[in-house]
Structure formats: structure tokens, C-alpha cells
UniProtKB/TrEMBL annotation:
This is Chlorophyllase. One of its GO terms (biological process) is chlorophyll catabolic process. It comes from Saponaria officinalis (Common soapwort). Pfam families: Chlorophyllase (PF07224). GO terms for molecular function: chlorophyllase activity. The lineage of its organism: Eukaryota, Viridiplantae, Streptophyta, Embryophyta, Tracheophyta. Signal peptide: none annotated.
Length: 318
């Protein structure tokens, strides 16, 4: 196992907006996989973990990356959320993958099983994960995987999930071209999520092509609109105008795949507003679901709280 502190940042004093960095110092840890040892420390896949460094008990958020992306492309988003008092776990589910997401679903289920025992052993000694308060989020194809887990696709035993978040989720190339296992049924309010509160975030530019030779990253018919349409009660929906499918990633994403994030998707003028919004609305949503404090989430719905973006649609099913 490799466990190393990458960075530590000083956060501003209270009061602070959910769209700004929070009050906690954050530390980034990297964990490498391997066979389970006597202490169950090695995870089943590489992990990037953002955590407050101050002692305390913190809820856990699992963040699943998008198609052919790296977990370290979400470092700024991870730190933003962690700085508000959450432990964020971002696995690297694969480096190369075909259309079938079954292995990603099964691997994520293994990660959830591992963190019940192994997570506390790799965190700073005074940091205690509240694994009974587990939220699952995913971006793009990772959003599909998050919903599949919540809907118990391919899993043999139910997982305890306290909140579900889809960040511009995508279920394939087009309607009728879903990647297996299909998540969308095209029946309104058909998702049986066992009353799990759900947040769906959409990008206004995600269904638009940047290049005529490449498909849209979040095609109409398999995107956020369809996922929210199948949600039942306790669901929140925000569609961000003038921002694209990859605008919640880091400002700088390196390597061939990193550079391609600026070429394959139609982007907004800057990533920072979308990334700040995604981080902030996730923080507000988790505070509402896990801490019972919904004032900031309600303020965002009403256009307050210093929202850094414009909405093309907002909807709530209470």
C-alpha cells in the first residue's frame, strides 16, 4: 500500500458559502490496491481520498469518475467538498473499458464493503468515518454506475446508501443504444430507490456536439433529463445553463486524456463556476440529507446563496 499526503490547504473562517472552500484543512491521500493483508488496509482498486485533517467524525461520499477519465481530474472538486466536513473517496475503476459497466458496478460494491473495515485504518488517527452515512455520486458513466448500485443492478445484497447524486449522468450513446446493464426504463418515476434522497445535476451544453465527427458527451435521450424523469419523491434537479459535460473537472488536466477534455465536449467559458456549483450544491444536499439542515439547499433552489451559475431548469419532488 502507498499512502501519502499530497496537499494541505488552509480554509477560511466562518461564515462561508457552500460555493467557497470550507473551514476544514484538507489532505489528499493515495492508496494502491493489492491482496488483502491481515489489517484489511489494501482496497480493491486505486483510491484518491480527500479528508479533513482535523479530528472528528465525518460522513463519506463516494465519487465515481466519468468514461475514460482519471480520478485525479477531480482533485479540486474533491478538496472543495472535503473542506466542508466530508470524506470523499474517488476510486480509479479502470483505465480502459468497453461498453459494459458490470465490472465497475461490482468493483464499486467491493469498495463499499472494504471501506466499512479498511477506511478508518488509512485516515489520520483522529479522523473517524461515519460509514453509516454513505452517499454515492458519479459523473457521466460514473453516474450511471451510481444509480445502478442504488437500484441493485448485478448486486446480490442491498447496500445501505444515505444519498445518491448523478453529476450529468449518461446511460449510453443514444436512446436504444444504452450500455449494459441498462439503467433507464423510459417509464416516468420508475426508479425504485427505496426512498433514497436523490440529486441530479445536468449541464446545458452536454447534449451539444463540439465536433461533428464525435458524438455529444451527454446525448439527449440518455442523459440527466431522463434520469430525473424516472426519479420518484425526494429528488432535486438542477440544469446549469452555458456549461458543459466536463466543466466540473480540474482547470488543468494533463496527458492525452486530460487535454482531450477540452476538445471532445462543448465547454463553458471557464470551468471554475460549474465546478464551484457542483461542489456547493453537493455540500448543501449532503447537509440536508445527512445533517437535517436544508436551508442552504432551499436557498440554492430559490436562486440565492451566491449561486455562481445560471439555471435553465430547477425542479424538486418532495
Amino acid at each position: 500500500m502507498s499512502s501519502s499526503s499530497i496537499s494541505s490547504t488552509l480554509k477560511p473562517t466562518k461564515p462561508v458559502s457552500v460555493f467557497d472552500d470550507g473551514d476544514y484543512h484538507t489532505v489528499l491521500l493515495t492508496l494502491e490496491p493489492g491482496k488483502l493483508d491481515a489489517d484489511n488496509i489494501r482496497p480493491p482498486t486505486p483510491l484518491l481520498i480527500g479528508t479533513p485533517s482535523e479530528g472528528g467524525e465525518y460522513p463519506v461520499l463516494l465519487l465515481l469518475h466519468g468514461y475514460l477519465l482519471y480520478n485525479n481530474f477531480y482533485t479540486q472538486l474533491i478538496q472543495h467538498i472535503a473542506s466542508h466536513g466530508f470524506i470523499v473517496i474517488a476510486p480509479q475503476l479502470y483505465t480502459i473499458a468497453g461498453p459494459d459497466t458490470t465490472n465497475e458496478i461490482l468493483t464499486t460494491a467491493k469498495i463499499i464493503k472494504w471501506l466499512q473495515i479498511g477506511l478508518k485504518k488509512v485516515l489520520p488517527s483522529s479522523v473517524h468515518p461515519q460509514t453509516h452515512k454513505l452517499a454515492i455520486s458519479g459523473h457521466s458513466r460514473g453516474g450511471k454506475v451510481a444509480f445502478a448500485l442504488a437500484l441493485e443492478k448485478t448486486t446480490t445484497s442491498p447496500l445501505k446508501i444515505s444519498a445518491l447524486i448523478g453529476i450529468d449522468p449518461v446511460d449510453g450513446m443514444d436512446k436504444g443504444k444504452q450500455t449494459p446493464p441498462a439503467v433507464l426504463t423510459y417509464v416516468p418515476r420508475s426508479f425504485d430507490l427505496a426512498d433514497i434522497p436523490t440529486l441530479v445535476i445536468g449541464s446545458g451544453l452536454g447534449e451539444m456536439k463540439r465536433n461533428p465527427f464525435f458524438p455529444a458527451c451527454a446525448p439527449k435521450g440518455v442523459n440527466h433529463e431522463n434520469f430525473y424523469d424516472e426519479c420518484q419523491d425526494r429528488a432535486w434537479y438542477f440544469v446549469v445553463k452555458d456549461h458543459g459535460h466536463l466543466d466540473m473537472l480540474d482547470d488543468v488536466t494533463t496527458g492525452i486524456r486530460g487535454r482531450s477534455t477540452y476538445c471532445l465536449a462543448k465547454n463553458g467559458e471557464s470551468r471554475a463556476p460549474m465546478r464551484r456549483f457542483v461542489g456547493g450544491v453537493i455540500v448543501a444536499f449532503l447537509k440536508a440529507c445527512l445533517h437535517g439542515c436544508d436551508s442552504q439547499l432551499l436557498g440554492i433552489k430559490d436562486g440565492g446563496e451566491g449561486v455562481p451559475v445560471s439555471f435553465s431548469k430547477v425542479d424538486v419532488r418532495s
